[in-house]
Amino acid sequence: MPNTLKLPLESLKLKIDLTGFEFPEAPKLEGTILGQSRAQSALEFGVAMSNPGYNIFVMGEPGLGRLSMITHHLNTIAQTLPAPPSYAYVNNFDNPREPVSIELPAEHGQALSKDIEKLIDNLLATFPAAFESPTYQQKKGAIERHFNQRYNNALDLVEKKAQSLNTALFREGESISFSPIRDNKTLDEDQFTQLPLPERDIFHKHVEELEEYLGNVLLELPQWRRAMVEKIRQLDNDTISLAIDPLFSELNDSYQNIDDVITFLSEIKKNLSQTITDYLMPSRTLEPGDNTAKRLMLTELYAPNILVDNNQESGAPVIYEPHPIYQNLFGRIEYVSDQGTLVTNYRKICAGSLHKANGGYLILDAEKLLTYPFVWEGLKRALQSGRVEIESPYSELGINTITLKPEVIPLNVKVILVGSRDIYYLLEEMDSEFNEMFRILADFDSYITRTDESMQRFILLMIKQAADSGAKPLTRAAIEGLIEHSCRLSEHQHHFSARINNSLEIIGEANLFCKQANNDQIDRLHIEQALAAREHRNGRMSQIILEEMLDDTILIDTEGEAIGKINGLSVLEVGGSSFGAPVRITATVYPGSRGIVDIEREAELGQAIHSKGVMILTGYLGHSYAQQFPLAISASIAVEQSYGYIDGDSAALAELCCLISALTRTPIKQSFAITGSINQYGEVQAIGGANEKIEGFFRLCQARGLNGQHAAIIPAANKRNLMLKQEVIDAVAQGLFAIYAVSNVDETLELLTGQLAGAVNSEGLYPENSINYKAISRLKEISDMTEDNDDKEEGEGV
Fold this sequence. Notes:
With 798 residues, this protein is of the alpha/beta class. Helices cover 47% and strands 16% of the residues. It is built from 28 helices and 30 strands. The chain starts with a helix and ends with a helix. The strands form 10 sheets. A 7-stranded mixed sheet has the order 23-24-22-21-26-29-30, with helices on both faces.
């Protein structure tokens, strides 16, 4: 039987032969995602569905190239779609705290901005020059002369009355005074004081009478002045309107089909009268000839803040936000310090990724999205309401830093979340609204079925990547090596690994060795050098463990026989690398009914799946050996010199064989190492990491010296997973090492002990001296001893 279980050379590794496949120098790849037909169809369906809630969650483990594949796919689709509208914020002249949003066709944003800049330049060229024209000055002079004439006529009446009272009227600017007249001469103050008191009293009475008359005559003076001011204001407005009408006429013609812009231009025109009167009148200009301050003032008032201006030729936007904090996603309002005070205006509003992706696609990392506060809830609100609002997320905490409330912008975006399975199931469980908003799941497989079609696409992808990255061309043998390595990563001879990025990285590393060797093409040798260098860089821990085994710090025997000792195979993961290493498993059996004690579990080092594997051993012993008597056994099983957590049930087969060895006192060959899971009926089940486990034991045997007796035992179900290194295959070819595949416990016991396991005959008995016969005999002996002890204890009790 052992020879029939030994695996032939051809089953140890898949040998790829790409004869007959195409190797174009400049391959063209379609937009499909390599080997991900399920995810591809889900993505296409989600993109095509325009109904609300059909956002997409792309599920898969990191390293599958999900982001690059999705971005490439969406870019291809987006180019066929029309560009969405552009958006801008403009000043709200009625309430500057609430800026108004305007919608523009694609590519009209910057055009509008330039047109407004041109308008500002024209305004500065027109004003205050329009107020210095002869026509304006003549009309303004006529208004002022009319006012002065009425004023002078009133004063003439007062002056006539004053002359009748021998009093002179003096005008000094707008002030009016009176002086007495004697002998047709006006008296000064000194002369007036020399007059007799009665005459001075008469003069004072005349002055009071004249002042009262003056007040009556000028009673309507404020109305005259208001009328003059109003006429001048109307003249100014007429002048402004006459000057700016041609400027706006051209703009209105250009944007006549864009309602928001027409409304915006109308508001500017309405507000300009006040602005020009306040700042651009000849008497109110800033420094003559200095237009910088005036241009800045007009820009701050009227220039639009172009939030997003989409390119017509680029189609729909595809935006990836690598850092989705609240401000980056929803936009923010910036501030400037003005004499120690933080101030802002509509021109300080900055777009977020939602604004940029509006009308297209937004790709987000789900884990990062959940890391930052307020972002997830904010994204849900935006998707549910169909609008994006710029606000302060910290206002709920009593931190109010916002002074503007910009008008909301309609939101029409397809959100693609990229995350792991854990994140997807967490959101599904914790958020009842999640499935309503992300109805499409694009599930990326961890492997790709190896077919002629997928291999051809893999070839094209590798060639294209080499060309795009500037690497040397790949030979056919190099691509064969890449495919074999990808199959090794997937642990299956008929599958690629979906971690395409890993293969792309190896091309870059192999290119370095190609350059160092001054070769024109990357060959299989360079691929193997890159893989060997990577293993060496990550191999410090595996080398340390190997050295400790060689100097017997870690006890592992690879020769001789021993009872209750067996070499198991394990995989250790350190950082981003994993490697195999043998471990010693021991078992002891003694009378009693305590059952099988898992020392790892008792020490709280054994995890749940490992503990389950040990519990299955009891089921197997009871089913196979204890049908005629109660199963009573006390046994302990331990993974020796293990100081960390242990999980997985791949040691169950080794633990069972070790337990039976201790039970039957049958020695086990220490030149074997074994891995495999079992069920209660003794069937051997598949495990993971078969290649690393075999190679870990092989390295130890190779270091001590291969003698043709060393071998590894794996489940038969794992034969398709073998992609072993060439050094192992060479040793097998030379007869120095062997690999066996087993399907049940009996086959395994016969390999390990060299003795017959024994099969049940027609009478339900095992052959005498077989391993199974010894196991039943020993268990019956322990059961009888246990019953005798129980009877003795009961007798003593009586």
